[in-house]
Predict the structure.
Amino acid sequence: MQQVDGHAGRLKTEADEPGWEVDPDDDWGVAVVATVGRQLRLRREAVEMRAADFGEAVGYGEDMVYKIEAGKRIPRPEYLDRADEVLAAGGLLAAMKEDVRKVRYPKKVRDLAQMEAKAVELQLYDPLNVHGLLQTPEYARGLLLMRRPAYTEDEVERFIAARVARKAVFERDPVPELSFVLEEWTLRRPLGGRAVLRRQLEHLLVTGRLRNVELQVMPMDREEHAGLAGGIEVLKFADGLAMGRSPAVANGRPVSEPRQLRILELRYGIIRAQALTPRESAAFIEQLLGET
């Protein structure tokens, strides 16, 4: 769908829509978006403005206005800002951006981000892709577009936004200790094109220089590899508790029982010992960058 943006003087595409679709399985998210939509409608009706006129004022179609007010679309922050201005709400509508921000990402990703935000140490191994916390937006898009059956553009945008938001873990104070093991082949596959891969490799080099980050590469020529049973995530918290997850343990469900955590930590420790050291890994990535 395309329509003219009267304020910016450009052609809008579907990716410019003022919100994402609501995940029907996210009960809390559905309730929040329904409440926000109802407040928008009540405010618009209070000033006796028709949906068509309001849509024209904010630069979107009448149909999209109705979808947001009905709780079928999650409004973007700029939509709420513009609505607050047009409806002279005195900041009341714009203040809902924080509530909307919490539900704009898929529930699965949101729950993971909340755990990462509390962890003081993260041990992460993904055998299939560059780990989500390390992905550039361009690389994430290239990866998401490979999915079959294909994600909708709306879903792609939501997942990219969610992965970018998760990067806040690198900016926390105090910062957590982060350990990553990456597979060589994931650093060679040019998802999205070679320019995208180059920027991804450059990003890895920058991230690997952070004092709280250890980044290691598992070369393809290793004759022994303890990670063939699948990825590993181990998150440790300040109170001494921990949570882990791996397809090889409890069918991928989060586990906190000491015996199961010991298995995950044992496997992760062996994988790290088999991989290149952080210094060797940085040199290896620089070599790949020169070949790309």
The two ends are 37 Å apart (CA to CA). The chain is about 45% helix and 15% strand. Residues 1-16 have pLDDT under 50 and may be disordered. The longest strand covers residues 119-126.
